[in-house]
Amino acid sequence: MSGTKRFSARRAERVWRMGEPNPKQRAFFLARSRFVAYGGARGGGKSWAVRKKAAGLALRYPGIRILILRRSFPELRENHILPMRADLAGIALYKESDKSFLFPTGSRILFGYCDAESDVLRYQGQEYDVIFLDEATQFTEFQFLTLTACLRGANALPKRFYLTCNPGGVGHEWVKRLFVERRYRGAERAEDYTFIPATVYDNTALLAQDKGYLQMLQNLPEPQRRAWLDGCWDLLEGRFFEEFDRSVHVRAPFAIPAHWRRYVSIDYGMDMLAAYWFAVDERGRAVVYRELCEGRDNGKGEGGRGHIISAAAARLLEENRGERVEAWLAPPDLWNRRQETGRSAAELFAEQGIPLTRTGNERVAGWLAVREWLAPRPDEDGAMRPRLTVFAGCAELIRCLSSVCRDPKNPEDVALTPHPLTHAPDALRGFCSWWISPADRPARRAHDLLTDDFTARPAPSPLGEGDRWRVI
């Protein structure tokens, strides 16, 4: 070994040991599952952990290929390239031409960024042993899944995907699903995913050097403070339906009275068939009591590819369970005639026994209508209650209403990404923007003592008279 390499090895040891990791960072270093996520709040020491882990892997495994990604190049340069050039001086050679460090052992650390969603396609066909996705919630699920296909190689080197994350951003929902809620689909396996939550309180080095940072986080507005300081994944900065509150709008299922009017609103595509059943009482209040969400987005339908129209109609009728429906509501695009057949999706649904009713397609006006339904208003007893509530079993609608964000270009509209979050709200919008009718009060039959007969007369209210109105 040359003198330079001997010096590099000694310096590498000093650099690797420079700074004592806190317990959460140590857990990140020691994690061995295929996907490891670290963070959850601001100030948890994520960037430092990424730099140290990447350098450690490059020094430990000769010939390993490592990719570190951020959303933009300025972030990449400030958070990783410049600090690592200082740390690895005399250890690895930085090449500006391809933004990489080359180690004497043949190991390489490469840097990349994805300003636009399609930028991730530049990495298709490339192979990496380890990938670091820094600030993963700034990436879409499409970008993440595209990168997972690059994690491969015909060698004995470890194959791992490391992520750092904070609540919020375009990737909030898929990161939350995999690492916080641990809801898996398809071939995903729970044992492949490890989440190491960390907050600023775990980063004792930062707290010792910058006491004002903690105070800044504590002074943030409540939703942002809970996300950035506490690492709360249920509160999302910039979420669209700020008035949606699980404690107010989500209720336990109950028997729907038979005389309440029923409506079904759908949003259809091969990527997702989203359908919701609504029941409307005599006061014009509605409850969402059933949902059907199946398509490519969740791997359902034939071969996990979603439902063609005939299959979608069959599933809708199956879930409807013979109930009388006032109207099957659907967006106007289902009336567009297809070039290959000259027929519309609405015609094909009608042939399968589901006559669709066209709703409006004004997005901003539709979202205002949804908000009106969600807004609490005085009830007959003076209590404040929303006009629309949701059964707890409608998990996809609850998840999407809690997660969809504002369109950054139009704050009055829902963001179109992540696209899988938009199907359920779109179906809800169709109902809320449609003119629905309250249920008729059922007739109450009372015994006439003079004629020994029964005479029908209007009931003042069906509520509380379980023996005089039928439920199903």
Give the integer mean of the pLDDT values: 85
Please indicate the percent range of residues in DSSP E strands (runs of 2 or more): 15-25%
Assign the CATH topology of the largest domain: Rossmann fold
Structural class: alpha/beta
By CATH, the architecture of the largest domain is named: 3-Layer(aba) Sandwich
**CATH classification, class level of the largest domain:** Alpha Beta
Share of residues in helices:
25-40%
Quantity of strands, as a count: 21
Radius of gyration: 28 Å
Low-confidence stretches: 1-8, 447-472
Question: Structurally, how many domains make up the residues?
Answer: 3
**Could you give a short account of the major beta sheet?**
8 strands, mixed
